[in-house]
Description:
Blueprint: H1 2-22, H2 39-42, E1 45-55, E2 60-73, E3 76-87, E4 93-100, E5 105-109, E6 113-122, E7 125-136, E8 139-153, E9 156-165, E10 168-179
Antiparallel strand pairs: 1-2, 1-10, 2-3, 3-4, 4-5, 5-6, 6-7, 7-8, 8-9, 9-10
Amino acid sequence: MKKSVGLKILLFFIAVGLLSACASMDSESYENQKPGFVLEEFFNGQTLAWGIVQNRSGNVVQRFTVNIDGVVEGDTITLDETFTYSLGEGVTKRVWVIERGEGGAYIGSAGDILAGATGQSYGNAFNWTYDMNLPVGEKSYQVRFDDWIWALDENTIMNRAYIKKFGLTFAEVTLFMQRKSE
């Protein structure tokens, strides 16, 4: 009996893993969409962001705003982010240092990001992935973020981040960002 239950559980996790692998975004479909999104052009200056985090059940567990001060020097983008929460709690400060590479590729780091982040530009979209230790209450979980950013117009972008553990999405972040006028 125990062997049968264990086999069913194993088969369930294999099936879920295969289904989640099949559900990846088609990055090539964004190559020719307009407006184009160039990370260093959008984040050069002040940006205001507002967003939510939803758990697996779809319940909103965080509401927050982010003030982002972006500085571009050559192929390096520095994003100084300050978070304010109206629901829940989380990191209050993060500084990203992002380097532009060849062919729309980027690498980045921040104090709470493990082993760096990698990104790729696809026309009007940008995909950013990284691992981090995510504090939840008194515990911390090593998770993977799979961020997709789309340009809505030259001053507004939308970001959907899928927070994953063992390949399964257990929370999602929806974030809108708008460049502040100079």
